[in-house]
Every structure is written in structure tokens, then in C-alpha cells.
Amino acid sequence: MIESLLIANRGEIARRIIRTAKRLGIRAIAVHSEADAGMPFVLEADEAVCVGPANPAQSYRNTEAILAAAKQTGAQAIHPGYGFLSENADFARAVEANGLVWVGPSADAITAMGDKINARNLMAEAGVPVAPGTTDPAATVEAALDAAATIGYPVMVKAAAGGGGMGMAVANDEAGLRTEYDKVRGFAERMFGDGSVLIERYFPRVRHVEVQILGLADGRVVALSERECSVQRRNQKLVEEAPSPAVSPELRERFLAAAVKAGEAVNYRNAGTVECLLDPTTGEFFFLEMNTRLQVEHPITEIIHGIDLVEAQLRIASGEEVEIPLTTSGHAIELRVNAEDPKRFLPGPGAVKTWVEPTGEGVRVDSGYAEGTTVTPNYDSLMAKLIVTGATRDEAIERARAAVAGFEITGPKNNLPFFAELLENAEFLSGDYDTGIVGRMR
């Protein structure tokens, strides 16, 4: 087993990894920016190293500084968490080139899945359903128009190198495609350094369902249950639940089989997620992307399966066998508590004056902040994940209502009022909702 672990991340996911590392007797090493010097994850680590100023490019994405910190502290392995460098194949290669253990999939798998067009083509070859779309980048707006004419409007215009819901726009007609193509291409060049654009069929009513996979040290790929991720704003997830209320046992088997095929197609190792779009009317689903890292929403899978996914990651990276409980029990819901306006979802950073987390049966809080800390505009607005579980979906929702009411935050803006509204929304309560639910609430 790995004996010392550097966590190349911050906030709640750094605390989450530190918690498991300490339970396993692994020395946990944090890296942090100057702005994060007093944050809980820094104080809870066995050792901490400042790697640069607040700007992520100079700290949490500074590969040279992070590798230097690993050398300085004698770290044996690096866990990237999610975001920042977690899906950076060059960083993964650099970690291993420096004689360290990379807690994640191979750099080749990250590269293969990092480009949406390449990923689509690989999945199609492996027999995983993909939505109608381009097999090569649409290099010009004329090429995009030709593709859309074949696929049929509306279409999704997507940055091929994008991820996490960024670099996406819908075009309903030729005029819209001309406008959105230029916007997405420009955004992709600025954000990802790659302006390649994919044109794909857009489904006006669709659900976002994903499957957790684990590529084991012995070469096998196993799929755990699915997660429902359809409560979104601007293609960014707000609420997830497991299992999905839209997935029947027969459909679940098809989802899991496709996810295993996807992992096997790239010789996947460690934790990953196969994301799909589900047409609730026909029961058809299509590959969306594979996230080659631990997901923000991994706790709900942990709860219903009775597994610690971070521990599984560390054991796989150490070459150890992992017991995977494939049966599930109960229902779990995760609410992403963000520092943002609950109406327009605009960021609202600030100093945390009050921070009181809810407690009680079936309630778990994975938080990155505490009273006296400050949510700065330098990083993602996620402050905490409120995770609730119950024997049934109805019980989980009831506990979620109580937990939301009992979560007290003052200082930065927060979206707890939105969750209180959602948990009374008839469409959400029915379980028959789709990715447009937040727009209909607003």
C-alpha cells in the first residue's frame, strides 16, 4: 500500500481524500495556494506545502511546483482529485516519469477520452451507442452547416477538448449555428488551447445518467450502479441521485454493459465515469463522455454500495485487489452547496461568518469551508456537498428537506433556498424530470 500521498487539489475533495488516507495510515500531504493557507484541508493534512499565489495557473495547475513539493516531502504518490490537473495526461506522465505513483487511469486513457470526437469514435467501434454526430472536427462553419444538414436540427455545438459541461451550445437553425460555432470555437481556443468543434444531435428532452466504473489492478473493468444527474444549470450539475428513478432493471443492465465496454476499449484502470444521455421516451441512451477521474458526486455511489471509492483508488494504484460490492441498498441524493445566487446562479463569494452543518441519521456533509474561512473568486464556487440517504427515495427527500433547513451559512451567497424549492417541486418529486427542470423552475 502507498505510504505517503500528495493531494494535488484543494477544498472539499482534498479533505475527503485526506480522511481516507489517514484511516488507512497513509501520510497525507497537502499543497495549497497563498490564498488557501488557513483552509481546513491544509490544517488537517500531516504536512502542507505552499505552491504559489491564488491564481490556479501559478499554484494548483503549476506542475513543476507540485512535483517539487512531492520531492521535498518524500511523497510516494499523487492523487489529483477532480478539476485542475486531474485529466491532464502530460501531468500524469510527468508524475510517473518522476518515479511517483499516479492515482488515476493511464495517461493514454486520459488522452483517448480527452478529445470528444476521438472518444465518440472509439466508443462506436467498441459497440457503445453514440448519438448521431461528426466523426472528424468541423474545421469551418461551412463544414458544421453540412454536418447539421445531415444530422438534422437542433444540434449541439461542442468543444472537442471540453469537459464538465463547458464549451457547449445549442443551435436550432442555420443562423443559430453560424453564431454558436464562432462562440464555441473561440471559447475552446481560450479555455482549452484547442478550437476543435464537434456537431452532434441535440435532444430537447433528455436525462443525464452516468455509470461509475473501476478498472482493477488485474485488468478487469467493473461497473457499479448509475447516477442521475439531470438537475443542472448551464450544463453544470446541481443535484445527483442514485439509483436513477428513470432506470429500470433491464435498462440498468444495458447501461452497465455499455460502461464496461467503454472502459475495456481503453484498458481503463482506477476510477472513472461513463456519462450518457437517456431519451426517457424511447429508452435509448447515447455515450456523452468519459470522465477519467473521481467525480464530484461519487459519495452517492459510495453510500448505496457500501464502498469507499477513494480507498479503492488507492488500492488499485498500489496493485492490490479490491472487493467490489455490486449490490445496492437504499437511495442517496447529493446537493451541491455553492457560493452563488439561488435565483440566477451567479457567483457570490465572501467571508464565511456562520457555518453550521446539519446532522442526523442519513446525513453526510463533505465540506471545504468553515466559519472564519473565505470563499474567494479564484476557484470553483462549490463550498460543500450535502449528501442524504434513506431506505427509499421518499425518505431520502424528506431527510434532505430537514438537512437543507438545518444548514446555516452566512457571509457568501448560497443556493440552499433553491434546494428547498426543488425538494417541494412536483416534477422533481415525481422522479419524471429531465435536464430542463431548472429552467422550468425559473
Automatic annotation (TrEMBL):
EC annotation from Swiss-Prot or TrEMBL: 6.3.4.14
Enzyme class: ligase
Pfam families referenced in this protein's UniProt entry, alphabetically: Biotin_carb_C, Biotin_carb_N, CPSase_L_D2
Keywords: ATP-binding, Biotin, Ligase, Nucleotide-binding
Residue ranges occupied by any ATP-grasp domain in the UniProt entry: 120-318
Domain called Biotin carboxylation: residue spans: 1-442
Name recorded for this polypeptide: biotin carboxylase
Gene source species: Spirilliplanes yamanashiensis
